[in-house]
Amino acid sequence: MYKFRGKVRRHNQRGRKLGFPTANVNLTKSTPEGVYISYAKIKISTYPALTFIGKAKTFNEKVFQAEVYILDFKQNIYGKWISVKLLRKIRGNKKFKFVEELVAQMKKDEAETRKYFGA
């Protein structure tokens, strides 16, 4: 599986508004687009996560990046280094007609991730 590392940066904070705050990381290598069950490591701690790789088609984004949603994580990590290991692909990148459809799918993706980790 794929691994990448980068500094968490501010983007438009859309994930937070949708109920899924993410750590955004620019990608320098060509990681296949999609949604993945993953691990996120910050300093010496590792956390279960759900990671989106690609351009957010629903919002016509042009930036290819990683958006890492760390389960049950509430810390501010802007400017900190994060390492991400993709464990299993859940689905490909998809454009949703409505934001509500995207949020419903994200909730399903989160449930599948929690089941994978037994959480």
Would you give an account of this structure?
It is a single chain. The protein is of the alpha+beta class and 119 residues long. The protein has one domain: Elongation Factor Tu (Ef-tu), domain 3, CATH 2.40.30.30. The protein contains two helices and six strands, in the order βαβββββα. The protein has helices at 14-17, 99-117, and strands spanning 3-7, 23-26, 34-42, 45-54, 65-70, 81-91. The chain has a six-stranded antiparallel sheet. β3 (34-42) and β4 (45-54) form a beta hairpin. The mean pLDDT is 90.
Secondary-structure blueprint:
Layout (H helix, E strand, L loop, with lengths): L2 E5 L6 H4 L5 E4 L7 E9 L2 E10 L10 E6 L10 E11 L7 H19 L2
Antiparallel strand pairs: 1-6, 2-5, 3-4, 3-6, 4-5
Rg calculated over all Cα atoms: 13 Å
Q: What is the H/E order?
A: EHEEEEEH
Q: Characterize the quaternary organization of these chains.
A: single chain
Class inferred from helices and paired strands: alpha+beta
Number of domains: 1
Write out the strand line-up for the largest beta sheet, numbering strands in chain order.
1-6-3-4-5-2
Summarize the structure.
By secondary structure, the chain is of the alpha+beta class.
Task: Provide key terms for this protein.
alpha+beta; 6 strands; Elongation Factor Tu (Ef-tu), domain 3; 119 residues
